[in-house]
Every structure is written in structure tokens, then in C-alpha cells.
Amino acid sequence: MVSVLPVVLALVLVAVFSLDTLLLLVTFFTPLSLPLHDLIPGLSFDMFLPTEPLMVGILVLFLFKLAEQKQFDRDILKHPVSLALYFYLGWMLLTSITSTMPVVSIKFWVSKLWFIVAFYFLGILLFRDKKNIYRFIGLYCAAFIVVIFYAWSRHLGYGFHNDNAAHFVMNPFYKDHTSYGAMLAFFIPFLIGITFSKDYRQRYRYLAGVGLTLFSMALVLSYTRAAWLSLAAAGAVWIVMKLKLRFQPLFLTALSILALVLIFQTQILMFLEQNDQESSANLGAHLSSMTNVTTDASNLERINRWSSALRMFEEKPVLGWGPGTYMFQYAPFQLTRNRTIISTNSADGGNAHSEYLGPLAESGVLGMLSFILLVAVIVYIAVHAYTRAKDREVRLIILSAIIGLITYLVHGFLNNFLDTDKAAVPFWGFVAMIVMFDIYTKKEEANKRAIKKPE
Length: 455
Description:
Layout: H1 5-17, H2 19-29, E1 34-35, H3 36-39, E2 48-49, H4 51-69, H5 74-77, H6 80-97, H7 102-126, H8 130-158, H9 177-195, H10 202-221, H11 225-243, H12 247-263, H13 265-272, H14 283-288, H15 297-315, H16 326-329, H17 357-388, H18 392-411, H19 421-452
Helix pairs in contact: 1-2, 1-4, 2-4, 2-8, 4-7, 6-7, 6-17, 7-19, 8-10, 9-10, 9-11, 9-18, 11-18, 15-17, 17-18, 17-19, 18-19
């Protein structure tokens, strides 16, 4: 205990005199953080060390400063993304109070709060210095590369052709290959942007290129089908944005496709049931197994979790069961015919496997809609900030942030990780970048109009 005291005092001093440094330090530690349960088994609660205790401190410091100064940047507080966040957090707090397990839900809500305060509200202030954006990306990626080499060293012992080993070789840093793959896909757009842009110095492009190569190889060897799909979907969004296609016809096309899927869902399901390809070390076969809803245990378990979430929603459609309670409450809602060889009653295999159905079960219909609204506002603001920006470097950062977020939002249909530091830190960090540049480009545009306005 005595030996830890100097480190704690040093962190307190950093927090007081250089909060930016502490935020960047947390960023670096995020890929390397470890769950408390792994260090001290048998505890009734869990958190990631050292990141979450540091974010608790940042939250407390933020609240003290807010109480003392009684002010915060109004452009941030009144921003549309912030307003959507208030609704999202407010409804989550209400359903935490009405929760079937209030203690669990309040803890869950508070953990969301320290992620958002640290890397959204304070993140916007951090990223006003553009250099901190590159420090944020570089520190997370540098620490992530350590995890990649750790995972490869373990994977090598089983043979890289062993797709089953790929599920756990990144443990304990990442719980399994799905969260690991999701974050690899998340940062690849930024690495591509820097690598192939002529606006950066050669050494930065070289470092980004090395990172891109390592991340791409790690993504392939992770055997994470959802991450592969999310990156492909994000690539399609990138093409749409680069071609400057109009939103309305794209929206109508997406709506038409969704309508066709609903109308012909029986025929589509019958077609998918003809696919009996299992997960495999063969990349083509592994990708093909994504649509196997007959025998692939991973796919069937997702359907089991989604079905359970929908039945939970049907029983409590307005207020839900309470944030963070899905893993404790879903077991009775599993149907015998939906259970698989990897089904469990203790949720040790993950939660609802959806960023959208999870809130539906835990916070009711407004829980899901509040998250969808938040996502819609973020994307809307991002696209307009990108269109408004004139500086090539700013446009590249905004575009990379949008595409990175898209990879996660697509991945969110199949998995959910925003309750972990691994995903929450970069997710809210990227949102903060977009909001910061939205405020900046609006002010820049207003200043230009003021200059051109005749006296």
C-alpha cells in the first residue's frame, strides 16, 4: 500500500495541474487495462484497472470545478449532440430508479457518466489543440499494438490456422475476439486516412502505414466476422460521402430495402437455413458462415439473446428491467428451442449482443429510441461539419472519425461493448472530435460572413 502512495499522489497532481495529460494517460492505459475480477476473483463488483478509477477521479474533479466556477462552455452544453445525450442519460437515470435491480442500474449509469464526462465533455476541450487528436489516436494504437503482439505470441502456439484459439488469445486485455476485432476495425479508417494523405510528413505517414499493416493483419487473424462486415459497410459509407450523393434518395433506398426484407422475411429465412457452413479457419468459409442460422452456434446464440431481449421488452415495454440488468434477468426468457451449446443462465458469454436491443430490454422503447436519436444526431452533425469544413486536414479528421464510428454502429447490431472502457473511450473521443470541429467550423463560417457583410 505504501509503495502505491507516490503513484496516487503523482496522478492527483497531474489531474489538478494538467487534466489533458491525465486524459491522454487514460487513453494509453485503455487497451492495456485489466478487469478487477481477474486480479481479485470473487468480488461482487468489477471495473477496469487502472482506467476506471482514474475516470472516477476525473468525474469528481469535473463536478468540483463545475460547482466552483458555476459555468462551462455554452457552445458545448447547448450543442445538439449534448442535448441528445441529456435525453439519453436522463431516461437511463429514470429507468435506473425504477429498475428491478436499482443498485446494479445506478452503478451502470454512473459508469456511463464517467466515460461521457471524461471523453466527451472534457474531450471536446482536449481536442481544441489539434495535436491532442493525434496524441489520442497514437497513444491508443501504440498500446493496442502491444496487445496485438501479445495475442499473436499466444496464437502462434496454437497455430494461426486455429480459429478457436483466436477467440481467447487476446484475453485478459480484451474479453474475446469480438471486442478486439471491433476496436481494430474502429481505428483502421484513421490509419488509412493518415497513411495515404499527402498532407502529413513522411515519418507520420510511415508510422501510420506500419500501424495499418499490423491492425489489418490482426483483424484478419481475429476471425471476427462482425468486424469484417462493419468495415465493409463503413467503406460503402465512405464512397457515398466522397461521391457527395444526396441524402434523400439514399434514405428512400434504405427504407425500400428494409421494407422488402420485412415483406420477404420468411423466404429470406428459408434461404439462410440452407447454409450449413460452420465457422472455419478458411477465411472464405468463415465469412460464408455469417449467414448460417441453422447450425452455427455463435449465430444461433445471438438469435437466442435477441429473442430474449424482445420477450423482456414485451413484459416491460415502457421502463424496462433497468440499465445493466439484462445479464441477470434474461435467463427465464430463453426458450428451450433457442438454446445452444454455448447458452448460459449467467450471461458470462456477453449481454444482449446488440447496442439497440439491449437498451430496449433494459430501458423500454424510449431507451432504444434515445440511443438511436443520439446516433442520428451524431451522424447528421458529422456529415454537415465535414461538408462545411474547408481545411483538408480538418476534413480528413472528420471523415476518419465518421467512418470509424460507422464501423462501431454497424458492429453494434451484433455486439455491445459501450459499457467497457475499450470501446467507450474511443467512441466518445471520436464523437468529441466531431462536435469540436462542428463548433469550430460554424464559428469560422460566421466570422467569414461577418467580414463580407457590408457596413
